[in-house]
Amino acid sequence: MRAPFRPALRLARRAGFTLIELLAVILIIGILMVYLLPKIPEAIDAAEVTACKANMGEINKGLILYKTKFKRVPKESGSRFLASLITSGTWENSETSAKKLTCPGVDLSALSVGDLPPTEWYSDLELVDGRATSYAARDLKEYPLRKFPGSGSEALVADDNDGGKNHRTATVVLWADGAVTTYEIALLREEGIVDEEEEILIVGPESPVEELQRLSLD
Length: 218
Hints:
This protein is of the alpha+beta class and 218 residues long. It has helices spanning 19-36, 40-70, 78-87, 95-99, 185-190, and strands at residues 135-138, 155-159, 170-175, 180-184, 215-216.
């Protein structure tokens, strides 16, 4: 006996989202924006701090190579201490090399080299001054290094924080033993090293951190 004929049920095709579904999606996007947008500046700054630390590590390697070639560290102080890595031929004069000598957290327009091609930033040591980089480096005239690689208490290079912060909360420092660390402004406030209202860690002779007083902004 044949089964009774039953017509197949056709599912109606949906032309798109319903109004309720669209509103739900908009609501979810709005909630995500509320929570994520404030964190974007923090994420960008964290990436720039990481890149800055990488620069410091490369500078340390460059100084070791310089020492191997010339049996000493550069004799110049401050920005010229850094530029010597290029002017001496220790590093190739290239865009990659030049960008290792300044903090990625600082807009190039704030520096004197901002309008020049990177291969001209540090090509002439006589033209290099503190405006050419956003790093402070060792003042070798006042604080010569007795040994390199050397002590982990001897600062070689740091964010200069000159005229503003290189990074939102951290100041990156390269030490003579090759270590790269950061000073956090919040911790310095807790320890009473800087005042509560202070937002910038001064680097150079006026720094509240003794080790950073041995760096030059020139």
